[in-house]
Amino acid sequence: MAPNPSNSARTGTSARFPPVLFLKTAYRNSPWAVISVTAHVILIAVLSLVVVTRQGRQREALPSVIAVVPRPLETVKLDDLPEELPSRGPLPAETTPLSESLPSEMPLLPDAPPGNFDQDLESKSDRIGDPNGLIEAPNPGFIGSTSIGPGSQGHRGQTVSDFSSRIPGGIGNRKRGNQARAIRAGDGEPETDQATTEGLEWLKNHQTPDEGNWDCDGFQRHCRKNVCDGTGHALNDPGITGLALLAFLGAGHTHKEGPYKKTVLDGLRYLKNIQDPEGCFGPRTDRHFVYGHAIATLAVAEAYALTNHQMLQPMVEKGLAFIYQCQNPSPSGTGFLAWRYGVRTGQNDASVTGWMIMALKSAHDAKFPVNRPSVEGARAFLDSVTDPATGKVGYTQMGLSPVRQAGRENRWPIDRSEAITAVGVFSRIFANQMLGLDSSKDALVIKGAQLMATKLPTWNEADGSVDMYYWYYGTLAMFQMGGEYWKKWNAAMKDVIFKHQRTSGDEKGSWDPVDPWGQDGGRVYSTALMTMCLEVYYRYGRVFGTR
User: Fold this and answer.
1) Under a CB-based contact definition with an 8 Å cutoff, are residues 143 and 371 in contact?
2) Contacts for 59 with CB less than 8 Å, ≥ 6 apart
3) Helix (H, G, I), strand (E, B) or coil at 455
4) How many whole angstroms separate alpha carbon 451 and alpha carbon 421?
5) Which candidate, 188, 232, 104, places its Cα nearest to that of 514?
6) Cβ atoms within 10 A of the Cβ of 226, count?
7) Pairwise CA distance, residues 375 & 352, whole Å
8) Is domain 150-539 in CATH 1.50.10.20, yes or no?
9) What is the Cα–Cα distance from 425 to 358, expressed in whole angstroms?
10) Apex 69 CA angle, 63 and 70, nearest 5
11) Is this model's pTM higher than 0.70 or not?
12) Confidence bin at 241 (pLDDT 50/70/90)
């Protein structure tokens, strides 16, 4: 997540919706709203008594953090890593053909068809198709075709989730019956599934029940045994909620299936409520809002890919429209480049661009048309900031190391991390797949992976080596690389994650937010990212083969 220097302003539903609009909405939803309000009044009264009772209690002692001696870099020999990876072969026949034309602008799409959002999401039937005629055939300027487009009933009778699970790098084997096999095949551990479940349980227990979000600086009020530490900044709630939802979706849990249906439903409802008419998820009160928007779009796109649910469709399309609206035009004016903070500010950075590419990739897997020039421009930007000799990816320009908030450089030295390189490698792999390019022959992908292999995950708070943002993207990238790259990274990743998951108290199942961005995202951020690292074995399929 992006740093947010201010924690003074809370931005919630009340700030975005005037009282009159709120009353009108409540009236339209009656009698459900009346019953809900009455129930919540009673619940708040009860919780107030519980909070007052707890105020005099002493906080329970927390278990000590296990220290892990960092691995010396010399243990990794680059000679053991292949210079070229086996090709994955031609793209499957079902892969959507690409078009070279560029649309002049991205039209905004209409809102969801009339109906109750909660009731429609909880419906047992798949709302495939477009009975209201809201979705036209995909524009020829996009990655898409009339036979595989949003609102269709699938290609050759397939559902969206069935189709996307077979796309290289698609949503993978997230069905519960396939996960154990995928974990074993990826050299996971027997306790991987249990650790993942405990992480999800912590997230479920610390979701705001009445709003559906994960409150960065207020999740503590949902603690039951003792009060967890590790709060973040309030302005990050949209993005952090998206990350938490991705952790559930990554394990195959949706609003229609699994033990966390209500948790996912509430999170999706929150995202719908904070999406503005232009498609942006969350308020724009901080310049880093594009992080939250990209992550929220990614989450909604994955939810649609897993469920085919029509009520999510306009949310994804409007989210994509705003992504295109934010993307900077190329200097020549004939295409696009990349993203940074805000709407077409003329500045680009690899971190924001990485989340945008992930959102476009998941939308593509869910059969939404994706703008080819946008993907090409983003890949060209990654070219411009990547050192061809070392594979190191710069933040905003070649050679620029990962950014740190002012005052955090000494605690988390930048030479301990290759976070931006990890973002660049993984983003490039996904961009290549969408464009029909072979990452196994991409020299910048290979060089970047070799560089990451010299900085494996280590948990040592004393020397500032903890960087969960790096580990999240590095785990995704190295899993795609496979072979010795994955073997070395996976062993280190499992070591730090299993040893440092909390095992007692209200923190059980979570991870302490002790990396450079822990102060911004808090315990929800760290727990969501580490849980998704454990899901890597089945979250996305591999784009190319392994040795």
Assistant:
1) yes
2) 226, 227
3) coil
4) 8
5) 232
6) 18
7) 14
8) yes
9) 12
10) 125
11) yes
12) very high
**Residue 132 CB: number of other CB atoms within 10 A?**
12
On the question of a cis peptide bond just before residue 140, with omega within 30 degrees of 0, the verdict is: no
pLDDT at 337: 92
| Model pLDDT for residues 285-296, shown as the tens digit of each residue | 888 999 999 999
Q: Which two tokens stand for residue 84?
A: 């070229």
Q: Render pLDDT for 432-485 as a digit per residue (tens, 0 to 9).
A: 999 999 999 899 999 999 999 999 999 999 988 999 999 999 999 999 999 999
For 92, the token pair is: 């499957």
Exposure string for 71-94, b = 16+ CB within 10 A, e = fewer: beeeebeeeebbeebeebeeeeee
Decide which of 361 and 129 is more confident. Answer: 361
- Residue 370's DSSP bridge partners are 143
Contact (Cβ atoms closer than 8 angstroms) between residue 451 and residue 392: yes
CA separation for the pair 381, 376 (Å, rounded): 9
Burial of 393 (0-12, 13-18, 19+ CB in 10 A): buried
CA distances from 305 to 232, 268, 475 (A): 30, 14, 22
- SS3 sequence, 326-385? HCCECCCCCCECCCCCCCCCCCCCHHHHHHHHHHHHHHHHCCCCEEHHHHHHHHHHHHHH
Which amino acid, 391?
G
> How confident is the model over 57-75, as pLDDT tens digits?
333 332 322 233 333 333 3
Quote the CA–CA distance of 264 and 55 in Å, as a whole number.
31
pLDDT for 50 beyond 50 = no
Question: Closest Cα to residue 242, out of 262, 284, 272?
Answer: 272
Q: Which helix (H) or strand (E) holds 143?
A: strand 142-143
DSSP string, 471-517: HHHHHHHHHHH-HHHHHHHHHHHHHHHHHHS--SSTTTT-----STT
Helix pair angle (468-481, 518-534), 10° resolution: 30
Question: What are the beta bridge partners of residue 336?
Answer: 329
Q: Residue ranges per domain, the chain?
A: 11-55, 150-539
Q: Which amino acid is at 145?
A: S
| pLDDT score, position 424 | 97
Handedness of CA 535, 536, 542, 543 (dihedral sign): positive
Angle at 432 between CA 427 and CA 438, to 5 degrees: 130
- In angstroms, the Cα distances linking 117 to 162, 163, 259 are 25, 26, 20
Q: Which of 56-60, 126-130, 278-282, 530-534 has the lowest mean pLDDT?
A: 126-130
Report how far residue 538's alpha carbon sits from residue 541's, in angstroms, rounded to the nearest whole number: 7
Q: Helices 176-185 & 192-205, crossing angle to 10 degrees?
A: 130
**Contact at 8 Å (CB) between 102 and 369?**
no
Are the C-beta atoms of 253 and 242 separated by less than 8 Å? Answer: no
Q: Residue for token digits 């010396």?
A: 72
